[in-house]
Amino acid sequence: MPIQKSKVTIFDVARASGVSSSAVSYALNGKSGVSDVTRDKVLKVAHELGWKPNGAAQALAKSKTQRVGLVLGYDPKLLSVEPYMMELISGLGAELEKYDYSLLVRMAVDENAKLAIIDDWIATGNVDAMLLVNVELGDPCVALLEEHEEMPVLAIADASVAGNLPSLSSADADAVRQAVRYLYDLGHRQIARVGGPESLAHSYIRDSAFADVASELGMRYRCLHTDYTPETGSEATKRLLSFPEHPTAIIYDNDVMALAGLGVAASQGIKVPEEISIMSWDDSFMCTAAYPNLTAMGRDVVDTGKQAAGLLLKLIDGERVGHLMEGPYELRARASTGPAPAEEKMR
Amino acid sequence: MPIQKSKVTIFDVARASGVSSSAVSYALNGKSGVSDVTRDKVLKVAHELGWKPNGAAQALAKSKTQRVGLVLGYDPKLLSVEPYMMELISGLGAELEKYDYSLLVRMAVDENAKLAIIDDWIATGNVDAMLLVNVELGDPCVALLEEHEEMPVLAIADASVAGNLPSLSSADADAVRQAVRYLYDLGHRQIARVGGPESLAHSYIRDSAFADVASELGMRYRCLHTDYTPETGSEATKRLLSFPEHPTAIIYDNDVMALAGLGVAASQGIKVPEEISIMSWDDSFMCTAAYPNLTAMGRDVVDTGKQAAGLLLKLIDGERVGHLMEGPYELRARASTGPAPAEEKMR
DNA sequence: TTGTAGGCGTTATCAC
DNA sequence: GTGATAACGCCTACAA
């Protein structure tokens, strides 16, 4: 029964196995400098006693905490309205686990709190590296971290806003092309986008990519901004539908808004996809639960998390990492999109 | 410019302010034993140098990590399909932040991994306390933690499955009564529940509460189990609707399944709420984005997280905590529920 | 191969 | 009020 109430130290193990504390340390860290016989004995005794190195002591001695930090902006609604963050955390956590790393999470009420937390981690050494998410245009966090090369960081952001920091960006530009082309091929010539907050870098990036591709293909394009909630999504939809020549397809920046769009159409008796096509950016259970099932641009966020974990570990090991791109989006065509209505096609 | 590349220690502060390191420690921890003049000087110098205590050293000396642990079961779909966990984390993190505590998160691939992580935390002292979530019936984690009183734990679970551990439980029984009564008053006499996995304690608890209240009111009640995904939710709905005398109201254990239920009804041309009422357990953006808006039993999960944080801090301080209950559910009546169809009422 | 001793950065106990 | 000094538990040269 390896259950011990009081904490057992390396000295206890040393005494019980009749060797010195350093022998124990060597044995348990798999380092040479100790005979196989002793090693086995020490390992056995350590196991029997239920010994594990004290985290704080180990961290102090090695100046390695085995922890990676993640600062989240405190906005429970934003965080929970999309599965994104939880999926990212899942992948991140699962991969870190393989290397005995843990995830240290803190909530920042605002931009200053976020900066303070980063400062804190740099000074206290409470994490070996950190992941920067939700980067905004001209984000001061980027500047702060650029000044502190001693803190390994990976930004989940487009290279254009990550500065000199290593980054992992989503294949947005490519996905926008894919999505717009898909609608174009279905005959749509007037499309709209219901985007997220303009302050977020990725909203901006998608905005311009959409505008570019649409104009390239000679399509009419318009974009409205929201705060990601279904209320603002509905509102935007109503506005779009109120225009005399309204779009024949709308792409929403998240699934909750796409669902709300579906609702607006239903309440106005507009048939989906016969009269209007609806498409969601980011796929989730919600898309397959909705009726009709929502066509979505999906990507494997869990995998992004895993990839990020791998990169962070590389950075901790001192390797250099540049600007990388996560796996491609996949267009998952479902029932909410279809050929553009005939009258529009003829135009 | 308080920016320092190399880490500054307490000795640097001591030297720069012409006192000893212990004076610095006293001054910075607000303890007596140092004159106000020295204290102010030390504080000033420390700030100028951008000094902050090294986390590992502090943890080692005080045997307090300022960290609270949370083990999540690795199932990205389950984690992200519901906003629950992210909301809990938000509240938890925000409250902990106020007391300079952080959240340490680890992912457990299975039950054994979960036990191993708990064991690890007990032995390494990497967290000051931990939160136990998703407790199952006869959960071995509960037993393990009961044996280790030295590790403060709070179980987010019904008192009946938390054993001797302090617990914070949801007001499920009361909410079930509220929900069933609501449907009863609308004239429903045949209701069904689409529940989550039977292994989860709270599924079981809701199951029996439903059965009790329904029989008490003389209603017909039946229950099907799922894995929380929309696919199994749809399937269950189809089965329920295939019965000759099918229920006039269905309550789903989460919103994604309720949404799927809405979809099944729409696809079969069954009108909601005229022909069938649909209700969701747990409210989220999805409920107000759906069409018709879903009636839901809502609760403030973020607040539960905050409450949990407060209790954990108490436990860390050595206070005793028993079995507590979180705030009540709120029935948020929306468009997806209505009077039972006439033919049913007459029966 | 083994053991001894010093260091990691703080805190806390002592004499002064 | 102040300043050495010993923990805290582990790692790792360096000696034996």
From TrEMBL, chains A, B:
<dbReference type="Pfam" id="PF00356">
    <property type="entry name" value="LacI"/>
</dbReference>
<feature type="domain" description="HTH lacI-type">
    <location>
        <begin position="8"/>
        <end position="62"/>
    </location>
</feature>
<dbReference type="InterPro" id="IPR028082">
    <property type="entry name" value="Peripla_BP_I"/>
</dbReference>
<keyword id="KW-0804">Transcription</keyword>
<dbReference type="InterPro" id="IPR000843">
    <property type="entry name" value="HTH_LacI"/>
</dbReference>
<dbReference type="GO" id="GO:0003677">
    <property type="term" value="F:DNA binding"/>
</dbReference>
<dbReference type="InterPro" id="IPR046335">
    <property type="entry name" value="LacI/GalR-like_sensor"/>
</dbReference>
<dbReference type="InterPro" id="IPR010982">
    <property type="entry name" value="Lambda_DNA-bd_dom_sf"/>
</dbReference>
<protein>
    <submittedName>
        <fullName>LacI family DNA-binding transcriptional regulator</fullName>
    </submittedName>
</protein>
<dbReference type="Pfam" id="PF13377">
    <property type="entry name" value="Peripla_BP_3"/>
</dbReference>
<keyword id="KW-0805">Transcription regulation</keyword>
<keyword id="KW-0238">DNA-binding</keyword>
